């Protein structure tokens, strides 16, 4: 490849890398790399799911049960997208199915709740009572 | 001066003169081996994540290559793509049928990464490695240290044919880090540096893991309490990212920058449990160095061992 062609290809590569920034459009593999780039308040809303038994006792589920993945970014992101797109009930059912096969779920009838919770994350990390608000988007029974 | 195969070593041209950079074919070959081996291990370790994609039915929002799709593809297509990509990845790494299978590997990795990111959460762990694989796959990276070269020894090309792809991969790294620095100033502004944003991000990562039933970093609580450290850490983070072009100058300043970025990723992994394996295993920074020396300057005991075989 002669020098002129190398210059042209290099310019195309640079243009392709910079284009998402100019267009403000994140993608793959060309990205604006927006992760953790916004300012973040101390109060944060997190989408999650939990099990509630007949006595009202709450059990934390696992990443695998909630999102069928070991990656918290994937689990949280997909659950947030499901709630946003009105698929919380559908998501609740798939979580309940996985919870039914989960050996750490306490015995007895239980329901799954898909929720968004607002926490003071600094208080949460320090072990304090951090919950500010909870919204339940869907409830469904764990199949026996 | 002579190169590893007895030929004339090309003159040293700094990386910032991207299109004029020269290199021995072994440098590009080593970049192929490093990116190939890393990608294969990565794909194998992450295999369950890619296989689980067959169970996804709703929430598809195509990105990258899969933006061309209107919905999820049949399971057999996903499994075939995984198998084909792994097979082509082996061929890429050992340099077998590289002109055909190198691009197949790059395309497969791009397709898998795109499809995995098409379910509501775009991650950024794979961007840089996929870009490097694309650059290497479209270059003459199997002219040396490959099965192809064993079968057919081709006449040496102009040394820029080997140096330019290496420099292009280095340029991709530099631009990527500059963009991450720009993103913080663009989306967060100066508040990202002088406010509590970085501390809150660390606390958020730990809290999110707790709420989702994962294990958060044991040092997150300690780090969050060290309030004095966060503004300097945030300023340093942005400064290091925006300073990426100095890596193209070579020499000590390049190594200082690479060390700073590596420490940055180490800090992120330690406090947030967010691991960017490509830079953490240093493969992302290979284009900045004469990486062929990993083999040509190998320890004497390894040299003896190879000769004995």
β-strand percent of chain A reads 25-35%
Structural class call of chain A reads alpha+beta
Number of domains of chain B: 2
Low-pLDDT ranges of chain A: none
Major beta sheet of chain A, specifics?
A: 4 strands, antiparallel
Q: Radius of gyration of chain A in whole Å, from Cα?
A: 21 Å
End-to-end separation of chain A in angstroms reads: 66 Å
Q: Roughly what is the average pLDDT of chain B, rounded to an integer? A: 92
Assign an overall shape of chain B: globular
Spatial extent as radius of gyration of chain B:
21 Å
Report the helical percentage of chain B. Answer: 55-70%
Number of strands of chain A: 4
Category from helices, strands and their pairing of chain B: mainly alpha
Biggest chain contact: A-B, 65 and 74 residues
Shape designation of chain A: elongated
Largest sheet strand order of chain A: 2-1-3-4
What does this molecule look like?
The complex is a heterodimer of chains A (144) and B (309). Chain A is of the alpha+beta class and 144 residues long. Chain A has two domains: 38 residues, no CATH class; 99 residues, no CATH class. In chain A, 40% of the residues lie in helices and 25% in strands. Chain A has a four-stranded antiparallel β-sheet with strand order 2-1-3-4. The termini of chain A are far apart. The mean pLDDT of chain A is 93. By secondary structure, chain B is mainly α. Chain B folds into two domains: 134 residues, no CATH class; 122 residues, no CATH class. Chain B is built from 15 helices and no strands. In chain B, helix 5 packs antiparallel against helix 7 and helix 7 runs antiparallel to helix 11. The radius of gyration of chain B is 21 Å and the shape is globular. The mean pLDDT of chain B is 92. The interface between A and B is large, with 65 and 74 residues.
